[in-house]
Amino acid sequence: MTSSLSHLECPHCLEIFDPDKLQTFCLACDSPLLATYRLEEVRGSLSKETIRERARGLWRWHELLPVREPTHRVTLGEGDSPILSLPRIGAALGLAQLYGKDESGQPTGTFKARGLSVAVSKAMELGVREFVIPTAGNAGGALASYCARAGLRAHVYMPKDAPAANIVEVQVSGADLHMVDGLISDAGRMAGQAAREHGWFDISTFKEPYRLEGKKTMGLEIAEAFDWVLPDVILYPTGGGTGLIGIWKAFDELEQLGWIDERRPKMVSVQSEGCAPVVKAFLEGKERMETWPDAKTIASGLRVPNAFADRLILKVLRQSGGTAIEASDEQILASQRQLASQEGLFAAPEGAATLAGLVKLLETGWLDRDARILLCNTGTGLKYIS
User: Are strands 130-134 and 153-159 parallel, antiparallel or unpaired?
Assistant: First the structure.
């Protein structure tokens, strides 16, 4: 068996969509579509031991990924990032079990490689040859790289003040780069218009179903690394929310396989004070987010004024018994220096935000200091050097 993909489903109206036709999102509900797999079949034919014995990389989970033919997989060696113990910072904070999942070694330097590998592969399998994406920076670089790998065409819409490394990355990969005077939300409108005018496939966050499936593999790896007993708390930097939702989706699928039990981590969404729509909506008990005005933060990946999958993000936080917290840019930078100087981990600002959020949660007493806590660093700080 390659992929056990069964169908796509809207999580709100529950309408079923054909995965062997090119799909975007549920127009009736303005909602992402979620991939569903024939997990009973997988349960009877696949074991944890088989997964462990396969060649390392994201595609060793191919039964739980959407691409049907191996020849359509576009890969640069993504997946299987390490989970590192953080003993010095843990000791300083009085934490017995502090860990970090480090995505800085992924192709293109961030977790975006996972999502774009799977999404480009599946779209190519369905006949797409030209893509468009709005990006804060890293997703555009990843799309440009994977399209270059596959001989496809990429059009990237990126804010003018995106990190210089992202701009160069897109240009050197041969993609068509459009610099936007505004935020990712402005880039999104321009990219959407270009998609309609030119027939390009819009591979924006949650505007197609499969970037989520690539990000989901982080959750699969977390479960495996902790020997199928999940951490107590996971802190995740949240912009568009694919990583947060993907990890949660992975846990649900693993339980259906019988590989983990029903216990789940408390999921914590960390944002910047300069752009915190998730935090605001969560604390106010709302089901939808309001667009954040005048979004500003050094963590470009967190500068997302509103998330298309806002209902799913908030649902994960509440189902898990988790929370949402914001940190200032000053706290994020201090945490970045602390991770580098005490643990040797030069994290992206987004990843460093999780440590800043952890410190704030400890101050409030929300966290149990004996809990097993996992911070998710989504990329390398090297991409933010100007």
Answer: parallel
Q: Is the dihedral of CA 123, 162, 111, 315 positive or negative?
A: negative
Rounded Cα distance between 281 and 61, Å, is 34
* 272 and 263 Cβ atoms separated by less than 8 Å: no
CB environment 82-121: b (16+ within 10 A), e (fewer): ebbebeebbeebebebbbbbbbbebbbbbbbbbbbbbbbb
The answer to whether the beta carbons of residues 76 and 287 sit under 8 Å apart is: no
List, edge to edge, every strand of the sheet that includes 5-9: 16-17, 5-9, 34-37
Q: CA-based angle 254:259:264, to the nearest 5?
A: 60
Average pLDDT over residues 227-239: 98
Q: What number is the average pLDDT over the span 215-231?
A: 98
> Contact at 8 Å (CB) between 356 and 86?
no
pLDDT digit string, tens, across residues 246-278: 999 999 999 999 999 999 999 999 999 999 999
Tokens 């591979």 sit on residue: 203
Contacts of 182 (CB under 8 A, 6+ apart): 159
Dihedral Cα 170, 174, 179, 184, nearest 10 deg: -50
Backbone dihedral region of 274: left (phi > 0), alpha (psi from -120 to 50 degrees) or beta? alpha
Q: Tell if the pTM clears 0.85, that is, is over it.
A: yes
Strand partners, 110: 379
Are β-strands 5-9 and 16-17 bridged in parallel, bridged antiparallel, or unpaired? antiparallel
Question: Judging by DSSP bridges, how do beta strands 153-159 and 83-85 pair with one another?
Answer: unpaired
pLDDT digits (tens, 9 = 90+) for 180-203: 999 888 999 999 999 999 999 999
